[in-house]
TrEMBL record, chains A, B:
<dbReference type="InterPro" id="IPR047057">
    <property type="entry name" value="MerR_fam"/>
</dbReference>
<keyword id="KW-0804">Transcription</keyword>
<protein>
    <submittedName>
        <fullName>MerR family transcriptional regulator</fullName>
    </submittedName>
</protein>
<dbReference type="InterPro" id="IPR000551">
    <property type="entry name" value="MerR-type_HTH_dom"/>
</dbReference>
<keyword id="KW-0238">DNA-binding</keyword>
<keyword id="KW-0805">Transcription regulation</keyword>
<dbReference type="Pfam" id="PF13411">
    <property type="entry name" value="MerR_1"/>
</dbReference>
<dbReference type="InterPro" id="IPR009061">
    <property type="entry name" value="DNA-bd_dom_put_sf"/>
</dbReference>
<keyword id="KW-0678">Repressor</keyword>
<feature type="domain" description="HTH merR-type">
    <location>
        <begin position="1"/>
        <end position="69"/>
    </location>
</feature>
Length: 141, 141
DNA sequence: CTTGCCCTTGACCCGTGGGTCAGGGATTAG
DNA sequence: CTAATCCCTGACCCACGGGTCAAGGGCAAG
């Protein structure tokens, strides 16, 4: 299967597939004798996992870090024997996921603070609850 | 006052000041006969307001859109007569602030969803509560 | 006058996840 | 055989808020 079809099959673009490959997220697929990428069904399975995890909020870098385990993850069939199974990851390398969750939490908190500060400035009656952080700048990490 | 001192006075760098000016956020300051920027105390006041608002989470673009009103805002003294006064903006052009708050809210919600999805995948016992959005990708706009 | 710091503009760098050419080869249908 | 698609690599583009470097000119003190 060539790149265009593979991309379409997982809802991506050829560019994205080459990009994942370049970032070490995907094992380089076989090539036809003319040099065109040729994706096997197994490759597609890994690709689907990658897209899934990216969709879940993991970054390309996160996945590059656990690229070696992705084929294993992809090899796991949907397991109809256990419908109560976890969302799907769980095996992925929980450390990565945990770190990403922590990063998301931190970002959410930062944005929430910014929003509240803005809202406090906007609202004429913050009932003296507002924290009034005087130091104006330094809002980005 | 030359750019280095002005920058130091508001806790920024010369580069940042030139950047604000270039983005139309700051009125171009006077120049010495040799072409060096010369900041007046009024310029500094505007600068401080800009830094404050950026620190509150407004973007450079937001401020460029209301650049004309910033000097007015800067001209308002701290008003010791009304210690219950709003955070400081309020006058800024509430529409901009409201839009930024809405954008922040949207981003916060998006990140929260991502985090929850990740957490659901991590946690082996989501008690069949998990939404299972099968369409994997398309998480960033 | 010279030294040393400050200022000028312009241009490229960061990270994220690719999009969009550009120029050339491969594959496939008619 | 030819034309229409597809694919290849490499390179530059987006937003954000500046950081950093380069080459050249200004400014004050000794």
């Amino acid at each position: 299967m060539r790149i265009g079809d593979a991309a379409a099959a997982v809802g991506a673009t050829p560019r994205a597939l080459r990009f994942y490959e370049q970032r070490g997220l995907l094992p380089p697929p076989r090539r036809t004798k003319a040099g065109q990428r040729d994706y096997t069904p197994e490759d597609l399975a890994v690709l689907r996992v990658v897209r899934h995890l990216l969709g879940l909020g993991l970054t390309v870098e996160d996945l590059a870090g656990i690229a070696d385990r992705l084929p294993l993850l992809a090899a796991q069939p949907p397991r109809p024997c256990d419908p109560e199974a976890p969302g799907e990851p769980a095996v992925v390398g929980t450390a990565v996921v945990r770190r990403r969750i922590a990063a998301l939490d931190a970002e959410i908190e930062r944005l929430t603070r910014l929003r509240d500060a803005l809202r406090a400035g906007l609202d004429p009656a913050p009932r003296r609850v507002t924290a009034r952080a005087h130091p104006p700048a330094s809002a980005g990490r």
